Amino acid sequence: MALSFRRRKSLSPRVVFPNRILPYLLVAPQLAITAVFFYWPASQALYQSALREDPFGLSSKFVWFDNFVRVLSDPNYVNSVQVTAVFSLATALVAMAVALLLAVMADKVIRGRGIYRTLMIWPYAVAPAIAGMLWLFLFNPSIGTLAYGLRWLGIAWNPLLDGGDAMVLVVAAAAWKQISYNFLFFVAGLQAIPKTLIEAAAIDGAGETKRFWTIIFPLLAPTTFFLLVINTTYAFFDTFGIIHAVTGGGPGKATETLVYKVYNDGFVNLILGDSAAQSVILMAIVIALTAFQFRFVERKVHYG
């Protein structure tokens, strides 16, 4: 009995560090980075959201929740919420759908598979501002090559004056920037699917489309859910450079998302209290949306 107990104890997967301080030293750098670059700025934003400050920082007054009341009653802020909802949903859906299509097509390639995948990943290395400028040059109504093609086809295109065209342009630029990231994870997910399942379905007479929707796509559910969370966060925060380079929030605030309004009110108009309040609201929205996704959307995900 004693020998059996020692054997089970020796086979235990528990890791024992030789020094009690070593585990804390290993996680200390990550904790320090998180504290300095997340918790400290977040606490400062929360504190400044309750202040009414002079643009030059010479005086400040504690006003409690007045900044939040003024922001939430502002029609321009309500417009930014609507713009952000449309922009983030369209960007996430387009980026994930196109990436999944390209991943499925690239997974079928036998010769030169590595070359195709490398070429697909390269756009992710492009900075957001550069990606925005590339699309702006292509679709500029005066000098853009693709804009000239649209006019030749009889399609009226002017993202500098039309809000709908501007939204289409920034969604296309933001989605193109994120497709490479999604493509990488979808390819990895496709490679993890056992080929025997697909071959068995093919032998049973299931067509290619039916095999995709009944076998491949359900098994990609964990990857799809992960990318849904990442793409939502990307659309809310990391697209600032694209919008700033392409439209600057215009025309007529048609592409002014929440993160761009925080910048516009805080750094351009120097309304510091309102800008801080908007950043706190934006952080709360993203946290609530992520929690909602994990609480309800993850129920549809099956980890096999």
TrEMBL record:
User: GO annotations under biological process?
Assistant: transmembrane transport
Q: Which GO terms describe its cellular component?
A: plasma membrane
Q: Which Pfam families match?
A: BPD_transp_1
Where is the protein found, in the record's own terms?
Cell inner membrane; Cell membrane
Residue limits of the ABC transmembrane type-1 domain? 81-293
Give the matching PROSITE patterns.
Answer: ABC_TM1
Q: Which SUPFAM superfamilies match?
A: MetI-like
Task: Give TM regions.
Answer: 21-40, 85-106, 118-138, 166-190, 211-230, 276-297
Membrane topology is: Multi-pass membrane protein
Ordered alphabetically, the record's keywords are:
Cell inner membrane, Cell membrane, Membrane, Transmembrane, Transmembrane helix, Transport
User: InterPro entries recorded for this chain?
Assistant: MetI-like, MetI-like_sf, UgpAE/MalFG_permease
- Family to which this protein belongs: Belongs to the binding-protein-dependent transport system permease family.
Give the multimer and partner information: The complex is composed of two ATP-binding proteins (UgpC), two transmembrane proteins (UgpA and UgpE) and a solute-binding protein (UgpB).
Function as written in the Swiss-Prot or TrEMBL entry = Part of the ABC transporter complex UgpBAEC involved in sn-glycerol-3-phosphate (G3P) import. Probably responsible for the translocation of the substrate across the membrane.
What is the name attached to this protein's record?
Answer: sn-glycerol-3-phosphate transport system permease protein UgpA
Organism for this UniProt entry = Borborobacter arsenicus
Lineage start: Bacteria, Pseudomonadati, Pseudomonadota, Alphaproteobacteria, Hyphomicrobiales
